[in-house]
Amino acid sequence: MPKDTADEAPQSQNIETDFCIIGAGAGGLALASAAAAFGQRVVLIEKHKMGGDSLNYGGVQSKALLAAAKRAYAMRTASPFGIRGVEPLIDHAAVNHYIDDVTAKISPNFSIERFTGLGIRVISAAAKFVDRSTVVAGDYRITARRIVIATGSSPIIPPIPGLADVPYFTNETIFDNTGLIPHLLIIGAGTTGLELAQAYRRLGSRVTVLDNAHALGAEDPELAGALITRLSDEGIVIREGVQIKRVSGTAGKIVVELQTNAASETIEGTAILLAAGRKANIADLGLDAAGVKVTQTAIKVNAGLRTANSHVFAIGDATGAPRYAHVAGEHAETVLRRSLFRLPARAKARIAPRVVFTDPELATVGLNETEARAKYGRINVLRWPYHENDRAQLEHATDGHIKVITSKHGKILGAGIVGAEASELIQMWSLAISQGLNIKAMTEWISPYPTLSEINKKAAFRYFATVPSNPFLRKVIALLAKLG
């Protein structure tokens, strides 16, 4: 009697497709939906949660936490508006519920059901290359014309003695916290570290941030310094240039031993958060079998995001690019243009805006002053302060300024803003740089009054501030005046 095949272990199923995308984070999802919209057969593989870090551990949760913290801060600081400031009663469990609720409302946009409805085959399993054009995932063997690695990144766990023996948070676990942390120690003064530092400080915690280099060291020192001063004024202790020798303790009592230039010391806190950077998720993918080359930290790609294997692309954090969802999305567009339309598209991470979502925000795009001087030599640096903006005055948001970099002939090279709504204001400069505009174009639009966006136009006009002092121009103006 033949054996019932229903009782046998499932056999590997072969799938042939146009695109096989490994990773369902921001970049992978953007590419999958766009490729499917153009009639391509798409297989999307995700071994963990749809939406990746942006939805589940990073962008959404941290910004929701910051939004809650901003409300608490507004209650304390309402007196300039004629409203008595009060100390808010913070229910940390309710804050955590709010974060979960926001995530739940956004999650359907990233769900398996939504992408299946778009005609995309979604496989929930770990992926591994077996040759240059074939990937296995669970019970499936996928052969694809193009394979795209979009596996994102994970928190770096620094090799600090004793760390493995104490409880610690990362950005993947801190949002599970439901209570007050009396004193939070944060290792790492980058974007994530400082965003969460301000959020927890405003929600009632003491916060100490430790870094072996400079806080926001990748950003323009002038703009970063203005933000760090504001954070310090709120009571966040930021220790730069310290070496962490050892961590010890238990939950509720964490001890960090430091070495500074002067001496050794210890700091005691109740919890510790690791925000010391991220590493690309490229282990266990079988990249050798695919002929994909890697560096110590990421997958090697060319300007078109193609790997050493011409059938394989890599996008987003897996390439070591700036770790933003919008950069991964731009990478997805680059791959689509190259693979479907044969266009010479190139990744443009250098002109992607970068934002620290603190209050005030810090947003930059293009070259900073140091980079511009190194590349172009003579440049123009244009500034305008928030305190000379009427909307900033009426909103009591006068901290900060804008800084714009142009070539000597006025081509816009970069811009940075530290101040209220910087993440919104920077978008105009992002457009200008992407289109290669001259600063003159930034003076030829009408800004409604009163708005913060007026600082963009005011800064642009600074380029022409010295023009009337030009001797030749003054003679021309004098002659025209006589003729008139």
Report the mean per-residue pLDDT as an integer: 93
Task: Report the CATH C-level class of the largest domain.
Answer: Alpha Beta
Morphology call: globular
How many structural domains does the protein architecture include? 3
What is the CATH architecture descriptor of the largest domain? 3-Layer(bba) Sandwich
The CATH superfamily of the largest domain bears the name FAD/NAD(P)-binding domain
CATH topology category name of the largest domain: FAD/NAD(P)-binding domain
Looking at the chains present, what oligomeric state does this protein adopt?
A: single chain
Q: How widely separated are the two ends?
A: 111 Å
- Report the sheet-strand fraction: 15-25%
Low-confidence stretches: 1-10
Structural class: alpha/beta
**Which sheet architecture does the biggest sheet show?**
7 strands, mixed
Keywords: FAD, Flavoprotein, NAD, Nucleotide-binding, Oxidoreductase, Pyruvate
Protein name: Pyruvate/2-oxoglutarate dehydrogenase complex, dihydrolipoamide dehydrogenase (E3) component
Domain FAD/NAD(P)-binding: 18-332
Binding site for FAD: 63, 151-153, 317
What key attributes describe this structure?
484 residues, FAD/NAD(P)-binding domain, seven-stranded mixed sheet, 14 helices, 31% helix, disordered N terminus, nucleotide-binding, flavoprotein
